[in-house]
Design goal:
two-stranded antiparallel sheet, 15 strands, elongated, eleven-stranded mixed β-sheet, D-Maltodextrin-Binding Protein, domain 2, alpha/beta, Arc Repressor Mutant, subunit A, 3 domains
Length: 344
């Protein structure tokens, strides 16, 4: 009888011998998936090759092999670049979360050696991008030069969807309705203020009652925007009709318009005061009632932040205003990310 491994009841059985796995011709490998995801995100072969540190033909070859393996076209070329097909969109949704999980696992293994490496994908709403992002990135990149950072800017609802789909490690957004599988942590409460063109240097910036906003020519973001929803809710409570003649969903054009005209805008205090240092603008508090928005960061419930993402979040928190002097107030829950991850 062949020698075997004793079972609990004393009988012997043969030890199964592993069979070498035969590689299927055209089998999908990790390198091909990385090339696909990069081209999908960049929409341009030249940019994808630069990001991957390879020559352009290498990108094209890997994509052709994927298309041959699955029997579908993944991209269509036009004058603007590479356009993903329906099959590419489906493939990205399926494989991107897997690649992020692999990156996270690799990052955690590098942590064991005390070295911080990896790739972070983070999303921020426009007001955060224009106020605290530059300082946070500067601080972070000086400390961790080997970490690659990708930043996407969009509205809160879009960013939450990207986090849920595995496209982002985390996002800084206005507090929104709860979503299954997504965890939100409070960062700060920030006052909303009125911004107008400076009439003369040194003019006092007196607070303005909310009701008087109805007498101004306002430029506001459109209704899907979180800031607009805050303003509209306050107006409804006071039965005040605010019908802005202009709606702009981008901050820079809004600030430029206000600086050159009689229009006024309602913006987060930190972004407004930052802009007032560069443009002829006056920032006025809104009272009776005052307005505020709550910033949170969100991530997938089953994917806690890795070390690199946590350090970037800490850098963002450090740039937030610490008290009302800058128009913001950190709630007690706005701790360092490593401390806050356990709280919802």
């Amino acid at each position: 009888m062949a020698r075997g491994v004793p079972t609990p009841c004393g009988a012997a059985r043969r030890t199964p011998q592993p069979h070498p796995r035969r590689k299927t011709e055209g089998e999908v490998n990790l390198r091909q998936l990385q090339f696909f995801v990069c081209l999908y995100e960049e929409r341009n072969v030249t940019r994808a090759a630069a990001r991957l540190h390879v020559v352009q033909p290498a990108v094209s070859m890997q994509i052709r092999q994927l298309e041959k393996r699955f029997g579908v076209a993944l991209f269509e070329r036009n004058a603007r670049g590479m356009v993903p097909t329906a099959a590419a969109h489906a493939m990205y949704r399926l494989y991107q979360p897997i690649l992020l999980d692999l990156d996270n696992a690799q990052e955690r293994m590098f942590e064991l050696s005390g070295k911080l490496l990896g790739h972070i994908a983070v999303g921020v709403i426009p007001s955060v991008a224009h106020s605290i992002l530059a300082g946070a990135l500067s601080r972070f990149c000086k400390r961790f030069p080997d970490v690659e950072v990708k930043v996407d800017m969009a509205y809160s609802g879009t960013l939450v969807e990207w986090v849920a789909g595995g496209e982002l490690d985390f996002a800084v957004v206005n507090r929104t309705r709860r979503r299954s599988g997504i965890v939100a942590h409070a960062l700060t409460q920030e006052e909303l203020v009125l911004v107008q063109r400076r009439g003369r240097i040194g003019a006092p910036a007196e607070p303005i009652p909310f009701r008087q906003l109805g007498k101004l020519k306002l430029v506001l973001p459109s209704r899907p925007h979180g800031l607009r929803m805050i303003v509209d809710e306050a107006a409804e409570r006071l039965e005040l009709d605010l019908s802005p003649p202009i709606e702009i969903d981008a901050m820079n054009p809004t600030l430029t318009l206000v600086a050159r005209s009689e229009f006024a805008a309602i913006l987060p205090a930190v972004a407004a005061r930052t802009a007032a240092q560069q443009l002829p603008l006056v920032v006025r508090r809104i009272v009776e009632p005052s307005l505020a928005r709550e910033l949170v960061y969100v991530h997938r419930e089953k994917r806690p932040l890795g070390a690199a993402a946590s350090k970037l979040l800490e850098a963002l928190v450090e740039e937030l205003p610490r008290d009302d002097s800058a128009g913001g107030r950190r709630p007690p829950s706005a701790r360092a990310p490593s401390e806050a991850l356990g709280s919802a």
